[in-house]
């Protein structure tokens, strides 16, 4: 699959390069897992912070821009209007964008996070690749907390009629995704009323993939962490399916 992707990009006249945002707010674990996952398919991975995003020519020879999980608010405060315009232009001219968890919130028109709680974030966002609202967290039996596994859950997600467990911690669903002509629902939270979990959006000539679940995260990274035994067991049982899911999702990018 890796060689097929490299050949595909070569035919398009592009170096197979992915840019990963690594500025303030990005969770180190999710950054590490994102780079590990996509390095298999993109020979060149470049990490940029908000300053580099503003000053460097990161678009040149790039095929994919990734915003990993972490905290959406620092993304919004650090990535200014000029950089938002550059990302938007990159996608509309044929580039691809991947937003995972906080990256998916950030790429939506509006974020409705933990409404009515001390952690509430209800704000408009600027990229608007998904024209609706990104809403979370989804599982009331889990109390979300930053930098903690207290809200972690092995979400049961259905993709192409097959169910698998994927790591979830505070991620979003995409409200009314089915009503937007540019949006296709690829995966659903089977254990959360079949709400959209992974979506594809057409933006200009480009492709946008947004995921409320962490399909990039491997089960073993939680070993030794308190209270994760059941989580690890479920994620391990679905690890092969998770890798197949990743390959399938890459085709949309």
What does it look like?
- With 253 residues, this protein is α/β, with parallel strands linked by helices.
- The protein has one domain (2-136, 172-216, 242-250): Rossmann fold, CATH 3.40.50.
- It has eight helices and 13 strands.
- Strands 2-1-3-4-13-12-11-8-9 form a nine-stranded mixed sheet.
User: Which structural class should the secondary elements be placed in?
Assistant: alpha/beta
Q: What profile does the largest beta sheet have?
A: 9 strands, mixed
Q: For the residues shown, what is the average pLDDT?
A: 93
Rg measurement, Å? 17 Å
Total E-strand runs: 13
From the 3D coordinates, which CATH architecture would you assign? 3-Layer(aba) Sandwich
Strand order of the largest sheet: 2-1-3-4-13-12-11-8-9
Strand content: 25-35%
CATH class: Alpha Beta
Based on CA inertia axes, which overall geometry fits?
Answer: globular
Brief synopsis:
Helix content is 29%, strand content 29%.
Task: Walk me through the topology.
Layout lengths: L1 H10 L5 E5 L6 H12 L4 E5 L1 H6 L8 E4 L4 H7 L2 H12 L3 E5 L1 H5 L1 E6 L7 E4 L5 E7 L16 E7 L2 E7 L4 E2 L8 E7 L5 E9 L2 E6 L17 H9 L1 H12 L3
Observed structural traits:
globular; 8 helices; Rossmann fold; alpha/beta; 253 residues; nine-stranded mixed β-sheet; four-stranded mixed β-sheet
